[in-house]
Amino acid sequence: MTDKLTGIAASDGIAIAPVYLLVDPDLSFEKVSVTDTDHEQARLSAAVEQAKGEIEKIRQVALVQLGEAEAQVFDAHLLVLSDPEFLAQINQVIQEEKFNAEAALTQVSDMFVGMFEAMEDNPYMQERASDIRDVSQRILAALLGVTLASPSTIDEEVILVARDLTPSDTAQLNRDYVKAFVTNIGGRTSHSAIMARSLEIPAIVGTDSITQNVENGQMIIVDAIEGIIILEPTAEELAEYRQKLKDYQTYRKDLEQLIDSSSVSKDGVEIELAANIGTPKDVKGALANGADGIGLYRTEFLYMDASDFPTEEDQYQAYKEVLMAMENKGVVVRTMDIGGDKHLPYLQLPEEMNPFLGYRAIRVSLDQIEMFKTQLRALLRASIHGKLRIMFPMIATLEEFQQAKSIFEEVKKDLLSDGQDVADDIQVGIMIEIPAAAINADQLAKEVDFFSIGTNDLIQYTMAADRMNEKVSYLYQPYHPSILRLVKFVVESAHKEGKWAGMCGEMAGDQTAVPLLLGIGLDEFSMSASSILKTRKLISELDTKAMKELADRATTECANSSQVVDLVNEYISR
Ligand code: PEP
Ligand code: MG
């Protein structure tokens, strides 16, 4: 019998390729005394040369694939390598204390890292500490003859296997070569999974043990539709999956015929199907998949991709690029949502027991007002280039919205008095992703221009189940009546006040949820670009009156998710 592993299918697709295992390398060594110090110094300088060559190569690849800003990180690494003070100190330890090169390097590097890390309020020095740590690891690996993996330089077709991938690791993957990725941890709505969907890289997360079950170079099959990994495929399985891969590609091709169609139900109700994006580069994928607009631009990636706060000008350029590319289609830009699983190396956030319940999103913006104002200025200046909508994340109370809105008004007034052009029809709305806001939606609806329901968080907070933790992922239940009732109340509250309600959580592209959401009366569905066309096809087959009856029954008669799923299947013949 073939070994199989299962996990959470996080980004659709099928891939067959050899494994590229990304594991922490074993860099253990023994600290020994040496007599031939010249030999140790020669080993050190050979290792430094090798590290230099490797970093130059990575820098070159990063420059071509990712651009100048990302490549600059490696310039900082090269600077460390040519720092005479750093190398002289290591040579001195070898000479005077007669340690082997590995021990001398580690001693000096720990000393510098400790010194820089102690300068807590200096983000620049913190960055230097991390550069020294990275570079020392590379020299140590060269001394030990260990090869370090680097995902951004992959240049042949592979399936990347790792314990976890950070959102920035994911952003660096080249989809021409990385055919899929599989991780031990994570859930469908962890941010690396979300990025995988925008990059259209098939992904399975939360397998628990994939890294212990495969070896580098081993051929595996990833079925990221069913969430299955076949570890030692037989010839028949390879043939079967090659066919499935072809069928999948044909299915995607057929859907492409809907790219220029509008999104209309069977009975003629027009819906907006928008895309979620993380960077201006994602707009291409959104348009290629026929998006009617951008329903969520997660601007925090702009902050995460940099080594310092992006300037107002950098932000202005990014927002302008998205607005112009989308022409007169709506673009909902969410102000920075940092915290939770998204970190900024240069913004010192406190260690928290529960980061998802902590200092995050609008809570940071309302506390660090200058940073917030810079973002709003950039947005307002860009507003003349398209149809901008601004959205605040993680709003829990009316006061938070009022405070954010008044800062927005203040920034707008200042810009106008400086003679700056600003659009006068910018809608300002909020994400509904905290149960308190959902339950208070009837009151919030009086003041906001729109709602966008963030089910990724709304579900985790309603079910008290961490969205990153695969042990409790069974509780991540988008079809649970509690979630559907909240969503229904939010949508009805918006409509009562003549406002629109969208959804930008992953549930909006879930094919079982879509009939229910259509019945509830959701106006805008925003999802990973790769889900748009199949949702457009599904909606074109649904009648809104029948779906309303389905949604009413689901929210009044069902006691759990499986009853809801049975009911949906009764109404939809697939
Ligand atoms: C959400 O919470 O549903 C959402 C869209 O925001 P994020 O996934 O970035 O937290
Ligand atoms: Mg959220």
UniProtKB/TrEMBL annotation:
<keyword id="KW-0460">Magnesium</keyword>
<keyword id="KW-0808">Transferase</keyword>
<dbReference type="Pfam" id="PF00391">
    <property type="entry name" value="PEP-utilizers"/>
</dbReference>
<dbReference type="InterPro" id="IPR008279">
    <property type="entry name" value="PEP-util_enz_mobile_dom"/>
</dbReference>
<dbReference type="InterPro" id="IPR018274">
    <property type="entry name" value="PEP_util_AS"/>
</dbReference>
<feature type="domain" description="PEP-utilising enzyme C-terminal">
    <location>
        <begin position="255"/>
        <end position="543"/>
    </location>
</feature>
<dbReference type="GO" id="GO:0008965">
    <property type="term" value="F:phosphoenolpyruvate-protein phosphotransferase activity"/>
</dbReference>
<protein>
    <recommendedName>
        <fullName>Phosphoenolpyruvate-protein phosphotransferase</fullName>
        <ecNumber>2.7.3.9</ecNumber>
    </recommendedName>
</protein>
<dbReference type="InterPro" id="IPR036637">
    <property type="entry name" value="Phosphohistidine_dom_sf"/>
</dbReference>
<dbReference type="InterPro" id="IPR008731">
    <property type="entry name" value="PTS_EIN"/>
</dbReference>
<keyword id="KW-0418">Kinase</keyword>
<dbReference type="InterPro" id="IPR024692">
    <property type="entry name" value="PTS_EI"/>
</dbReference>
<dbReference type="Pfam" id="PF02896">
    <property type="entry name" value="PEP-utilizers_C"/>
</dbReference>
<keyword id="KW-0598">Phosphotransferase system</keyword>
<keyword id="KW-0762">Sugar transport</keyword>
<keyword id="KW-0479">Metal-binding</keyword>
<dbReference type="InterPro" id="IPR006318">
    <property type="entry name" value="PTS_EI-like"/>
</dbReference>
<keyword id="KW-0963">Cytoplasm</keyword>
<dbReference type="InterPro" id="IPR015813">
    <property type="entry name" value="Pyrv/PenolPyrv_kinase-like_dom"/>
</dbReference>
<feature type="domain" description="PEP-utilising enzyme mobile">
    <location>
        <begin position="155"/>
        <end position="227"/>
    </location>
</feature>
<dbReference type="InterPro" id="IPR040442">
    <property type="entry name" value="Pyrv_kinase-like_dom_sf"/>
</dbReference>
<dbReference type="InterPro" id="IPR050499">
    <property type="entry name" value="PEP-utilizing_PTS_enzyme"/>
</dbReference>
<keyword id="KW-0813">Transport</keyword>
<dbReference type="InterPro" id="IPR036618">
    <property type="entry name" value="PtsI_HPr-bd_sf"/>
</dbReference>
<comment type="function">
    <text>General (non sugar-specific) component of the phosphoenolpyruvate-dependent sugar phosphotransferase system (sugar PTS). This major carbohydrate active-transport system catalyzes the phosphorylation of incoming sugar substrates concomitantly with their translocation across the cell membrane. Enzyme I transfers the phosphoryl group from phosphoenolpyruvate (PEP) to the phosphoryl carrier protein (HPr).</text>
</comment>
<dbReference type="InterPro" id="IPR023151">
    <property type="entry name" value="PEP_util_CS"/>
</dbReference>
<dbReference type="InterPro" id="IPR000121">
    <property type="entry name" value="PEP_util_C"/>
</dbReference>
<dbReference type="Pfam" id="PF05524">
    <property type="entry name" value="PEP-utilisers_N"/>
</dbReference>
<comment type="similarity">
    <text>Belongs to the PEP-utilizing enzyme family.</text>
</comment>
<feature type="domain" description="Phosphotransferase system enzyme I N-terminal">
    <location>
        <begin position="6"/>
        <end position="128"/>
    </location>
</feature>
